[in-house]
Design a protein that fits this description.
single chain; mainly alpha; 83 residues
Length: 83
């Protein structure tokens, strides 16, 4: 259930959203998924490794790094983000 997943992701990221915001986000995700399944024009949908470099701005990448360190700092998992 996409709505449930959006809610879980919001809680994981410590983002407060009311029910209307979560429903709107789930609907937007649903529409994007539908477009991705029908269109080759959306390169974001292809899921190729390293695509984030083409999509993230510098500030988005900095924000991701902060959240990643907060959420994964105690994990012993390691990831190479540069293929």
């Amino acid at each position: 259930d996409l709505g449930t997943l959006v809610g879980r992701l919001a809680r994981f990221l410590a983002v407060s959203c009311d029910k209307a915001q979560l429903e709107s986000l789930a609907e937007s995700c649903s529409q994007l998924l539908e477009q991705c399944s029908k269109s080759e024009a959306l390169s974001v949908c292809r899921g190729r490794v390293g695509l984030w470099k083409d999509v993230f701005t510098v500030s988005m990448n900095d924000k991701f790094d902060v959240v990643y360190r907060q959420k994964m700092g105690k994990s012993d998992l390691t990831f190479d983000f540069c293929p």
